Amino acid sequence: MKVLIVDDEKEIADLIEVYLVNEGFNVVKAYSGNEAYDYIEKEDFDLAVLDVMLPDIDGFALCSKIRHSKTYPVIMLTAKTGYTDRISGLSLGADDYVTKPFNPLELVARVKAQLRRYHQYNENEAENSDIIEIPGGLEINRTTHTCTLYGEKLNLTPLEFGIVLLLCENAGKVVSTKEVFEKVWGEEYLDSNNTVMVHIRRIREKMHERPRDPKFIKTIWGVGYKIEK
Hints:
Layout: E1 2-6, H1 10-22, E2 26-30, H2 33-42, E3 47-51, H3 59-69, E4 74-78, H4 83-91, E5 96-99, H5 104-128, E6 131-134, E7 138-141, E8 146-149, E9 152-153, H6 158-169, E10 175-176, H7 177-184, H8 195-206, E11 217-220, E12 224-227
Parallel strand pairs: 1-2, 1-3, 3-4, 4-5
Antiparallel strand pairs: 6-7, 7-8, 8-9, 10-12, 11-12
Helix pairs in contact: 1-5, 2-3, 6-8
């Protein structure tokens, strides 16, 4: 995993690097706010350690920059023992605070703890990915095998559910009639087979879709079907 260290005191940044590299981390160092700003813009990190007091862009501004588009953990370093910096950093989205001077082993332990929490959170988010939401009110759940529209459960057969699930998993893309049939039915598709079309019509009826202007399942003539993102 890659960690960004930002500290204008080269000795401190180098010391942190030694301890993190010994634990198997890939470390990128910046000795100024501007240098760090460029790294944040161009590279992906798993965690950042930011010194509050920098000669140009301070650690608070860098933390704010990270939180504008990134979710990885941020640990702030400060030479001040008061609560003002701590509160400011946490309010900007910092995850932890370490006061200088510090024990490098404690900092490494805090880095590991933050990464552990971060990845556990992401795993829980991944579990929630079993639910696919389509803008406009359509929601499908792989685990419970249910599909709801505007909060109301749709009474779909297993084959109908399979069709909607396939289209939702490929939202924004056109799925060919052939692919729908072969993935949902598990059989070889024949050009004269109208089975998919019939099932799409039934699904639309259950969704109370207008045949000529459906809101969710669009027909791409001569190709297949699509659900917009």
